[in-house]
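Researcher: We're teaching a course module on how sequence relates to structure. For the next exercise, students receive a sequence and then see the predicted structure as tokens, so they can try to spot secondary structure elements on their own. Here is the exercise chain.
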Amino acid sequence: MNMAPQSPHMLPTPERVLSTLNQDGSRRWIDPRSSPGRFLNRRRGIGWALIALFAALPLVQIGGKPALFLDLMNREFTFFGTTFFATETLLLALLVVGIFLGVFWITALLGRVWCGYACPQTVYLELVYRPLQRLVEGKHGREGAPAWRRVLRFVVYLALSFVIANVFLAYFVGVERLSRWITTSPAQHPAAFAVVAVTTIAMFIDFAYVREQMCTLMCPYGRLQSVLQDEHSLVIGYDATRGEPRGKLESGATRTHGDCIDCKLCVQTCPTGIDIRGGLQMECVGCAQCIDACDAVMDKIERPRGLIRYATQATLAGKPKRTLRPRVVLYPLLIAVVSSGLIAALAKRSELAVEFLRTRGAQFTVLADQSISTPATIRLENRADAAVDIVLEPEAGVTLLGAATAQRIEARGYIEVDATLIIPRERFVNGRAIVCVRARNGDRVVVDTEHTVLGPLFAGGVEKNP
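Model: And here is the predicted structure for the students to work with:
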């Protein structure tokens, strides 16, 4: 593990404030050693499966649509065959809330399992970029490697970041469009090329320079652990009762020290540079490297494994284990409510959205026969994959002028129709009337929508301004 030289312009502190900073405030560069073991093997299996999924998902089609496609230009978001539109705020809100509640629930049960096993930052840094650094620079380390090896590592990093940036872009523009861009000159699509270039540079800086600082200083998830977890959440912990007091390996029947021989391999293998023996810390990403390192040492000194292990803070402190707690019951109940709402909303969603937009100027006019004329701008959005011809029909007694003919709406398109509603005076109560307008495609009713119309107040036969 390499230590940066202290800066003469900063005053040293009695102790290290962050695991990634030296006592004088300068950057502490961390080159963790790899500790083979069962948890590293599991992380590799999961991580490489996720990398393969990330690369293959843009190519997967479900129901003729990409499995995952975030079309920001057209404000359409496809998740496993279901397309959400930016105007469907309720559906998007339920989807996002459901995802967050799922993360909260998993965190309450399993701690930072996402960070250690599935977060792209951890997966790519620990399973791709750092192994490449060890391969290119060998055992020299960050400071001791020859200049040509460091330059070669940066070239490899840049090329890999460019490939990942293109795969990442496929989620936003689609595979077909991305293929055309790759096979043509960047001059024909300068904006897309600029996006790829910026994304490539950002990934290069992240994995070559920022690294663990992303987890310890920038990502808010680690700072939310204090409210998402409790003492019964699964974490990686050190069994101080068994390990203390620390000391060198003793021979003979008499032992004056605990099982921890203070080899510090758990610190040397930690990707964020913490000492897990100091207790649960914000910087711990739950990667279990310290478990593999400690288990290997315990095997060598013929001590039981598990000095550092997955446990809860309560069990490490000798308290009874509690699986059912308010938060692990409340989260799934909320997820069930949100999921039910999302399913119900999806079942009721229509391929056509009809929305009455607010108009400028006078809201209504009283006609000679005392009926009320009010202007209306009607927005028709076709969410289907084929063009439709829509006829708008108002309810009985209401007249719709300017929109009685069929309106042609292209696939995934929308139009705005300026119309006028004429409503009988007796329909208004307290200056308001609710009007139902039906959208019909041939003989099939696509959607019924209600619109609240403002009108005058009537009292004693005299019109009043509402």
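Model: If you want an answer key for the exercise: The chain is about 40% helix and 20% strand. Residues 1-7 have pLDDT under 50 and may be disordered.
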